[in-house]
Amino acid sequence: MISNEHLPKDIDSYIINGIEKAKKKKRGIRIRRGAGIASILTLVVFFSMIRMSPAFASYISAIPGMDYIVDLIQWNKGLQSAVDNEFIQNINVSDEHQGIVFTVNDIIVDNTSMVVFYSIENKSQYKMPRINSLNITDERNSELKAAFDYGFAPYDGSVYNGRLNISFPGDEDPDFMIPDVIKLTANMEVGDPNLPEGQSHVLDDNWKVSIPIDKSRFENMEKHYVIDQAVEIAGQRIVFENAVIYPTRVSVDISFDKNNTMEIFALENLALVDEKGNEWGTIQDGVTMNHISYTKKRVFFQSNFFTVPKELYIRGSGIRALDKDEAEVVIDLDGNGLIKAPDEKLQLKELKLGDKSLFVSFKLGSIPPSGSYIEFLSWNGFDGSNQELRREKEGRFTRENQDYMEYDYEYTFEMPVKSPVRFPVIDYPNRIEKEFQVPILP
Fold first, then answer.
1. Biggest alpha carbon–alpha carbon distance for the chain
2. How buried is 116 (Cβ within 10 angstroms: 0-12 exposed, 13-18 middle, 19+ buried)?
3. How far is residue 151's CA from residue 248's CA, in Å, rounded to a whole number?
4. I need a labelling partner for 408 at 20 to 30 A (CA). Which of 244, 264, 329, 402 fits?
5. Helix (H, G, I), strand (E, B) or coil at 405
6. How far apart are CA 267 and CA 24, in angstroms?
């Protein structure tokens, strides 16, 4: 079991500092949803409370050219195990423009996801080049049906090491096939990201790399289990249907009874646990969940593929949920006030209506545990004429000694907006505690 004993004592300040830097920039989080997949993604800056074992760090640092990877997977026990078992492919392809070299160094890939370890070497006069936007295609230059995310990380001298997480649709799209080549096209932003808006800019060039995929490396490398076990919490029935264990992650399909009176957003403190007490938590540094349907979700855990437990359980401590008639935020644009909110913890902080955009800022009087910064509002809203509002940017912030979270959202639209506007709530810190354990093995 990986120990937490080496966690920095001031890890919360790291999180706060990262959030404050994002707030100073006032930019959207570097997260993109691929076509055809509705996914929840998390920022790398929001850390999971699992840290790398000294034995693994020593092992990987001893391999020539691989020590850079330690910091990139220190929060993911499953990826550490994949590297430890040599389930990693060296790529080493680069593209250089204006003295900036973009290199894909290594990948970990299987039938459910792909982790890309890349670097940006700066030999130019520019300061801190970093990915501004990214396009992912197949060998025919068709956009890949996948969700993906990437984030900022500190420079080490003139080199920045980063990680890109790509989530394939799997059985949500039966026609999807992992291509033989995946192409990345990136453009670069330069300038100090900690300075106010306008102090950095995007370069005109495109950096392009092609990644060959050796699918024979992961053929048939998955384990399927039927669970078919139900638990009941606060009168709400939750069914754990099945699990698939891959080298990069574990997927568990969970459905909610259509007669439930509450909207269940998440199950609290989920983890896979074996008979020895070893734990594998949910993914905190990539795609955490897919919404398959209104009543069904697919939750992703760190992988225990390379271990062989005699017993394996899903363990949790409760749910986050609201009564179905409370899971909505409604705002009166004329009076600048909340018409409807889940409870008194939510306050409207700021509202700005433009010709084609709506900016809303909230204070939510609940600080979540480290690593569980909830998304809160839906990607889509609707105005009084049922026109769709599409979210373009979002930010989640807090400060030291602050007893609330701040949420900033920017939505865009085509036609003039009619009041009121309403937004479905997709997560909320209303916790109902009840411990449960569901067997997967034997």
1. 63
2. buried
3. 19
4. 264
5. strand
6. 32
- Please give the angle made by the CA atoms of 361, 296 and 175, to the nearest 5 degrees: 105
Query: 169, 164, 93, 159: which is closest to 129 by C-alpha?
Result: 159
422 and 380 Cβ atoms separated by less than 8 Å: no
Let me know if the fold of 223-321+432-441 is the same as that of 328-424: yes
Is the domain spanning 29-217 CATH 3.30.1330.130? The answer is no
Cis? peptide before 174, omega within 30° of 0: no
Across-strand partners of 39?
Answer: 290
pLDDT in tens, 57-82: 554 555 556 677 888 898 899 999 99
Q: Look up residue 127 and give its DSSP letter.
A: S
* Cβ proximity of 89 and 107 under 8 Å: yes
Q: Which CATH superfamily is domain 223-321+432-441 in?
A: bacillus anthracis domain (2.60.40.1630)
- Tell me which fold the domain 328-424 belongs to: Immunoglobulin-like (2.60.40)
| Residue 127 burial by Cβ neighbours in a 10 Å radius (0-12, 13-18, 19+) | middle
Higher-confidence residue of 414 and 155: namely: 414
Q: Give Cβ neighbours of residue 129 (< 8 Å, ≥ 6 apart).
A: 100, 120, 122, 160, 188, 189, 190, 203
pLDDT tens per residue, range 198-226: 578 899 999 999 999 999 999 999 999 99
DSSP state of 11: H
Instruction: Please give the structure tokens belonging to residue 277.
Output: 């007490």
| Residues whose CB is less than 8 angstroms from the CB of residue 211 and which lie 6 or more positions away in sequence, other chains included | 91, 93, 104, 107, 116, 181, 182, 183, 184
Q: Domain coordinates of the chain in residue numbers? A: 29-217, 223-321+432-441, 328-424
pTM of the full predicted structure?
0.79
Confidence of residue 404 (pLDDT cuts 50, 70, 90): confident
Q: Looking at residue 63, what is its pLDDT?
A: 57
The span from the CA of 70 to the CA of 221, in Å, is: 24
Report how far residue 442's alpha carbon sits from residue 440's, in angstroms, rounded to the nearest whole number: 6
